[in-house]
Amino acid sequence: MTTTTGTWEPARTWQVSSEARALLEQFPPRPVPASWPTTRQDRSAVEDRLVTAPFRAEDSHARCHRKLSLQAVLDWLELYPGQTWQQRWNATGAGHDGHRDWRIQLLADVDAAGLMDQRRDHVRKVLGMGMIQLVGGDYVRPSLGWLMATSSPLRIANEMARVRDPHGIAELRAARLAHTVGDSTMLPAIEKAALIMAAKGGMMRDITVGDCLDAMRVSRDVFPGPTRSSRHSPVFYQLLHSIGAFPADAPPTIRMFSPLFAGRLSVEQLVDRYQLVSRPVRDLLVDYLRERQPAIDYNTLTALATALALWFWKDLERHHPGIDSLRLSPETAAGWKQRIRTRVVRSRNDAGEIIESTVERDGAADVLMTVRSFYLDLAQWALDEPARWGPWAVQCPIRAADIQHKRMKTRRKARMDQRTRDRMPVLPILTQAVDRERKAAATRLESARTTQPGESFTLDGVTLQRARLARHSPRVWAEEPTTGLRRDLTREEDDTFWAWAAVEVLRMTGVRVEELTELSHHSLVQYRTPATGELVALLQIPPSKTDQERLLVISPELADVLSAIVCRIRNTDGSVPLVVAYDHHEKLWNPPMPSLFQRVVGLESRPIPISGIRTLLAGALGRAGLTDATGKPLDFAPHDFRRIFTTDAIMNGMPPHIAQLLLGHKDISTTMGYKAVYPEEAINGHRAFIARRRTLRPSEEYRQPTDAEWDEFLGHFHRRRLALGDCARAYGSTCIHEHSCIRCPLLRVDPNQRQRLIDIRDNLVARIAEAEREGWAGEAEGLRVSLYAAKDKLAQADNTIQRRNIATQLGMPAFPQIADRTVTTPRHPADQPEST
Fold this sequence. Notes:
This protein is an alpha+beta fold. The chain is built from 32 helices and 16 strands.
C-alpha cells in the first residue's frame, strides 16, 4: 500500500566537531571595545601623529600620497555622526560587506558634499593608503570579515611591521625561514595574523587562541564552499604557536575546524543526510538506529544508516513515490533486490561510443543481510514492546535463501587467495625497489644541496639542474634540462623514506594499516630475561579491530627500520614529537601521542593517515613498475601484506594457533582464511589433531611448573649459546643436525665471531684440497657442503655488520636507546640465591 505524504527536507548546515566547539568555549575571542584612547582623538591629533615617525614615509613622493589619501578618508568619515572614528566608520555601513568596494561609496559621498577637487582619479588610486594609516594607527578597527574580503587596503602586514609591532612581525618572518614551508604559504599566514591585530587591536603577542579560532570561523563564513585555497589554512596559528605566543595549555593544532573533520553526526543527522520523504519511516529508522547504537561502534552505525536509509528506503522512494509502509509487495521487493544486486557501468568502445553494461554489485549481500536483520529485529522487539514496534512488524521481503552465505564466502576466499598468489612472488622485488628508491632519493637530495642554483649535477646517469627560485623556499628544487619539469627533491626523499618504512613494517609484522598508523614510541618495549639479563625487543600493537592488545618480537631487520624512523622524527633533544591524530572511523580526535608514522606538514608534525599510507604505497608501486599476469599495473593494498605474512608464516611451519595470536584474531578460522592455497584436508586434520590432543593431555600439564621444571626451561636458553652465536631451536626440541652447527639454518651468527668463521672456511678449503689430493671423494663431498654453509654464514655476518655500519652513519640509535620502556619479569623463586 502506498499513500502520499508531505515532503520533508531538513536543512543541511556545515558543522564543526565537538572538539572544536569545546575549544571555542575554552578559548573565547577577545571582544572589541566600543571605544579606546586613540579612536577618541580629534582630527588635528590624528594628522599630527601620522606625519611623524614611524608613520612618516621616507621620500617626499610617498609622503604626499599618504597625506592626500588620509585627508580624503578623514573628510569622508567626518560626514557621518559619531564621537569616535570607529563610530563614524560603523555609521558609513561600508564595513558590513567587504566584497563591496568602499571606495565607490567614499567618492560618491565626498562628491555630494562638494569636497572633491580636480584630482578625483588620482585620489581614488591612493584611498587604500589612507585607510591603512588609520588601521595601523589603531584609530579604526574594521571587522575581521571585512579585512579578509576587501580588495583595499592590502598588505597590512607590511604597515603593521613598520608602525605597530616591528618586533612581532620580525619574529614571524624569522620563524618562516626555519621551516620547510615556502613564501607562498607563509606570507598569507603572516598577513592573516596582521589582520587579527588590525581587527582586535594590540600587538602580535596579544593575539589569543580564541582570536585564531574566531578567524577560522570568520574565514568559513566569508568564503563558504569547499575551497582548497590558503584562505582557510591554519598555518598562521602554527606560526604563532611556534614562536611561543600562546600559553602552555593551547591546543597544538586547530585542524578540527576543517570540514574534513566534522566529527560525529547524531542519529538524526545520519538519516537526514538522504532527505527521506516519508516522515514516519524516517522516525522509525532514527528509533531503530538509536536502539542499536549502544552495542555498536560509530563506523558500524554509519554503515547501518547508509544501508537502511540510502540503499533501501531512498531507493524505494525513488522508484515508488509515496511509499510509506515496510510491507512490500512481491513485485516491489523483487525489483529492489534486483537493483541492489547489480549496477550499471558505462565505458567507451574503440569507436568512442558509450556502452552500458550490468555487473554484480560487490556489497549487495551485506545490504541484504542488513535489511533482513532490520525486519527480524522489529519482529522480535514487537514481542517485548507491542505499542512501539508492533505497527512496523511485517513479513520480511528477504528470505534466507536470497543471501547465499557459502557462495559469497567462497568467492571472497578465492578472490583473496588469487591476490595473495599474484603478489607474494613480487614482494621481494617491491622490497628491493623501495629500498633502492629511498637510497637514491637521499643521495639525489644531498647532491642537490651541495650544488649552486643554476648548476647541473649527474647521479646514476640522470642529469638535473638546481632550480633558481624567485621566492624563498627551504625545499630543494631541481629541473630536468630536457623537459623543464621541476621536481621537489625534498618531497621525493620524504615520500620514498615513508614508503620504504611502511612496506617494511607491514611485511615484517602483518599488522593492520590502522594499527600501523597508531604505532607510537610507547609501542617499543624492552623485555629483560631474569636469569641472563638479555634484552628482548618487543613491539606492542595497540587494540584496534578486536580490541585485543598483543606483543610481537622485533627482529634485527625490523629494529633497524624502527631505529631509522625514530632517528628521523625525533627532536634535537631526543624526544619524539607529540601529534594529534583524527580517527576517521570513530570520528574523534585522539589525545597527543608520540606516533612513529608522522611527518612535518607546514609548521606542525602530523600523523600519516591511512589514506596517506595508501598513497605512499601507490607511488612506490608506480616507481617500481610492477605488473600482474595480464600486464596491468599491480596494486598493493595494505591488507595484502597481512595476508602474505600469514601465508608465508604457515607455509614455513608456524602453527596456525600461533599465527592467530600474532595477528590478533579471535577465531582461528579467520587466520586460516588469510592463508592462501592451504589444503582443506590439512586444516581439518590439524583441527582434529588439536582436539584429540587436548582431550588426551593429562590435566597435570596445566598446573604451575615446579622449581626443577622452571630451571630446566631457563637452562634451555643457556644451552643455546655456541661459539659462533646462538641456536634458535624451539624449547623442548633437540638438535636435529647432530650438533653440526655450521650447516644448521637455525644458527644465528654473532658478527663478532666473523674471524672464527673465516678460520673455519680456510680450514675447510685446506681439508678439501687434502681430500682431493688423497683421493677421498666422499670426504671431499661432505666438506664441500660444510664449506657452502660456512660461506652462507659468513655472508649473514657481513650483512649484519653492514646494517650496523649504515645505522651508525645515519645516526640511528640502538634499540635500547629508542625503546620507550623496559619490562623486567621478577626472577622465579628458584633463581633467587639462598640466604645465609
